[in-house]
Amino acid sequence: KSLANQQLSLPHGPLNGAGERAIVSKQLEAKGGTGGADPERGAYSIKADFEQAIELTGYGRFHYILLAICGLVSTSEEMDVISMSFILPSAQCDLDLNTQSKGWLNSIIFIGMMFGAYVWGSVADSLGRKKVLIVISIMNAFCIVASSFSQTYEVFMVFRFLNGVALGGSGPVIWPYFAEFQPKSKRGSMLSFMAAFWTIGNLLVAGLAWLIIPTGIGITTPAFTYNSWRIFLLVCSIPSFIVAALLLYLPESPKFLLSQGKIDEALAIFRGIYVTNTGKSKDQYPVKELLIDEKLREELEAVTKPIKNKYKRMLYDILDNSKQVFMSPILKFTIISITINFTFHIGYYGLMMWFPELFNRFDEFTRAHPGVEDASVCQVTDYVVGMGSHSQTGVCSATIPSTVFMESLITVAAALPANIVAVLGMDRLGRKFFLVFSTMAAGACSASMYFVTNQHQNLAVSAVFSGVISMGNASLDCLITEVFPTNLR
């Protein structure tokens, strides 16, 4: 058996058999670890590095709880981003939106995320992942609630920007946090599971939008309006409040603690994970001392520089880590990662955010031209902007037909089977295989949008795009999380 399999089987029996001790000792020595008797505890004592220590905690209840909570963080993040795609057609009359202002509303959350990603990501590398995740979850929830009460386009834009600042920290922090608890043998498949929660977020948003927005519930007065799309937005804030509370029950990342020189705290967390996974006493966890490898030693040397004030330390870390990202040998990975992310998300969000609006425009064109079976995306858009609801003479309508919600639901549901394929194949076929296949297939779908001539073709292309791009999203999160050292993640 592989080392990983043998280690994962150890928690099922007490570590007091001579055969087991011999196996562990030989295999740890082969990988740089050591083992021996612990006279104080009367148990077998192992010195192990981080990867060996996390393997020996077993795999079980703790990791499934971690997946559920971190997955909910990912779900709430995606809900908040994609919710705008359903708000645009619904709020166009309330906020007096045209095509250009809709584009800005779609964009402003990402402008906020750009600022938030750098600031929160840097703070998380200095102060810890857990604290930052709790703060940004609370900030995110309150910004969504505030935006639902906004009565003008300008105020709505401000709160969506602040919402983006909070969301910008969620993605960059939750992935390293989750990955740093995973043993190497499980990391790819579990990160793919995490990516599947994005799809769940998309499904929840589409389903909630379908249930709430067409009902017309809410109140409308000359001075104040709180109608169905605002209530939908309010409901979308609930997962962020729940996440902030649940994160209190999770520990800090042991990898982060090791990189900060807090070895005893990291070892205590390993023992806690072992107890949760196996139900045994923490004294039976075989690792009594953590070995520091060369990469981790370099990180420890960086954080032991003589800076007394913790805020000066944090500022120094942020500036120093930023500099390291653009220095050899990390520079190559930074440039490649930036390029891949930039091009990938032009396609992912560039289309996913517009699909409900595009479905709505096709529906409007079809109702206005009952005898016309074929029309391209360009023809549909020309009609809606020139003579339809987006024209200067057109009558504004915030009513969205149920077919639009159904098509949106089908599109995001297409990502579910793709996520299952990614989970099963990520550790077997590799991250790069899925990333290359996904981006090539998604590119082909994007190009084929030009040849779409009716609603059904538009739905088919959108669904295929949603499926293949979700696999790429999972592989991208795995790949980028793994190539950067702990202090730069």
Automatic annotation (TrEMBL):
Family, similarity comment: Belongs to the major facilitator superfamily.
Keyword Transmembrane helix: yes
InterPro entries found in the cross-reference section: MFS_dom, MFS_sugar_transport-like, MFS_trans_sf, Sugar_transporter_CS
Organism, scientific name: Anopheles maculatus
Swiss-Prot/TrEMBL keywords: Membrane, Transmembrane, Transmembrane helix, Transport
UniProt-recorded Gene Ontology molecular function terms: transmembrane transporter activity
Residues annotated as domain Major facilitator superfamily (MFS) profile: 64-489
Gene Ontology CC terms, in alphabetical order: membrane
Protein name according to UniProt: Major facilitator superfamily (MFS) profile domain-containing protein
Pfam families with a match to the protein in the record: Sugar_tr
Bilayer topology annotation: Multi-pass membrane protein
